[in-house]
Hints:
Blueprint: E1 9-10, E2 14-15, E3 31-37, E4 46-50, H1 56-70, E5 74-77, E6 80-84, H2 88-97, E7 101-104
Parallel strand pairs: 3-7
Antiparallel strand pairs: 1-2, 3-4, 4-6, 5-6
Amino acid sequence: MANDNTLVYSTDSGRITQPEQEAERPEGDGIARIQRQTSGRKGKGVCLISGIDMDDAGLTQLAAELKKKCGCGGSLKEGIIEIQGDKRDLLKTLLEAKGMKVKLAGG
């Protein structure tokens, strides 16, 4: 049995709660990085787009627009847009048309 010294309850002050930490998403640097990833996805590839400096509402709208133009599914997780399939070249042209700097990352 592991020796865990986290205080759960005290007769002096009652139930002790640990402060919850919010998961901060990485800030974008203005350069959209597109990479392909298959690990942990049962061989299905997705394109990850990171580094875009927008708020969550803007990223959600951009993700919806990219999914529609690519004709595939995807999602937005922790500030990273996931597009299903290997659509790196199409995504690059779409993002460049919006005036963004784009780099194709290895992966």
